[in-house]
Amino acid sequence: SSEAALWQEYTAPDGRKYYYNTQTQETTWDKPKALEASTAAGSTGDSVENNTGTPTFTEAQQQAAALAQQQVQAQLAAAKAAAEEAKKHDEESIKESETVEAKQVDKSRPVSSNPVAGTPWCVVWTGDHKVFFYNPSTRTSVWERPPELYNRPDVDLLVSKPPEEKSECTFFEHKEPEVAKKADDEGKTASSEESDDDEENAPPAAKKSRKEKKLEKQRLEQLAAKKEKDRPRQMLEKQVDPAIQAELQAQKEREEVPFERRLQEFKEMLTEKNVSAGSTWEKELSKIVFDKRYLLLNAVERKAAFEAYVRERTEIERAEKKRRAKEARENFKNLLEEAKLHGRSSFSSFASKWGKDSRFKGVEKMRDKEDIFNEYVQELEKKEKEERKERKEKIRKDFIAMLMEKNITSRTKWSSLKKQLEDDERYKAVDRSSSRESLFREYQDTLPEESNSDIEEENDRQKRVAAEAAIEERKKEVEAELGEQLKERSKEHEKHKYQEHEESFKALLIDLIKSADYTWHEARRILRKDSRYENCDLLEKDAKERLFDAHVQHLERKRRELLNETKDITPSMKWREAKKIIEKDERFAKFNISERKTERDYKEWMEERKEAVMKDFKDLLKETKIITYKSLKMIQENEQHLRDILAVLENDKRYIVLNNAPVERERLLEQYLEELDKKGPPPPPTQQEADRRRK
To answer: Is the pTM here over 0.90, yes or no?
Structure first.
């Protein structure tokens, strides 16, 4: 069809086929529908010709067809006889015309070929002093100079001077432009088809004289020769690669438009074609090659602009991804607050209940969801623990205040007292009876003791003290007689003796009280059984209790220090894992404390250790000079600043110790950056000095 004739097929350097419309100058990778329809029609015609089936006719139709066939055969026989007769008389004139045509054709043949150094192209001259360019690697011939041969002095010399006629050679005959060969074949095919159509459709010709036939034949041959001579050049000019034509035209237009504007339009084209950040030039080329804006830049500029665009899109998508992740985390935390969780809530029950919520699905990885959940629940548990502790302490103080209102002595019995307190709300606030009795015993220990053993002990102590006081009194009398020098010596002696009693009591505590679980009431019973207890008479009851409390605190502190010294135990380790290490260590066995007490101490140590590590990390952030109030905006614009900050922090132990808690470490860093951003630039030093003086 006429539409199919407008399309031409070409082969790209990578072997793919593409199609060019000579009328609209459109280029496409996909085969046009007009060519597909033409190909389908040709295959249908072949199938019809090869069909062995015979159509059926009526008798009248068969007779008419036979009569027409006989007439045609008779006419053809007569025309054939006339043609043979005319052929004999015109052999000489035909030979002369063929000789002229051969000379004309020979002049268009290649006579010289010179390769261009550094390129696959050759400069070819024809016999009629025309020059074209031939690429033997791709078997491509073009009349116009390829872009690779621009600004080449050697090529200018080759195309400016034709070769001498003596050097004519038939060696290059096979290198005639393929486009011209195709045109010759197409011309011959077209002429043969036209002659066949004329023979089939023309009516029987009237008889002419020999002279008329001879003149007509010569005229037709000359007309055909002229037509064939002009046609190859036309076909050659039409067959120039449209991609090269477009590149040459674009090169002229690029000189008229500023580079910044062309670059901006090229980037807009990449955005409109949805070029992805992680793609490559070869993969995206098919999307953009047919756009007019593709030719706004040359080959080198296109590649560089594409790579810069891809890097920019990568940074933008990375920042957008981080922003979406942060927003998803905030929405997930809001969901946790709405879920009304408590310190013992489990992630599985939370996920089964809220798994269909969009805020739950917003965080992609299930592990991240569980980490955020556990962090939130741990905060809740810590808060609930503090509230329980405060509430328990308040109940204890109220109960002690209630006991102070009663006339309680060291000999008061709990069984008789609790009947008087049963109706009091402060009594009911303590849940367990054992806890009530324990608080009563604790309060009773603070009261003066009046038991028989205690009275006897106090009497003995007073006797010893009185004896010692008498001796001291006598010494004083002597000192008064001897003078001031003896007084100073006496004071030093008393002070030294008091220190001896204090050291003796401390040694007694070290030997007998090895567990921090003892109360002062229980420890005193143990200490009385030792004979060394009498050597501490100079110490009052309050002084002894004070030393006991200091000893218990020393035991607890020593146990905590032992946890710090154990390298296998980390602040993030769970109690089950730490318990195995503690049971194997003989140093912990010396403290002789219960498992429940050890677990409680471990959890308290872990919380204290965690708070200390977090405080050290905050101090590190304050000491890092690269972090300023501008850092948050700089990170949002370019993540390189964040990498610079991390490069400084990674060398400090206070950063490395938080490797087991990267989420908490990142949260503290973001919180510190947001605080600096809100505060803005620091005041000038003069203003700071003025504020300090006012304070």
So the answer is: no
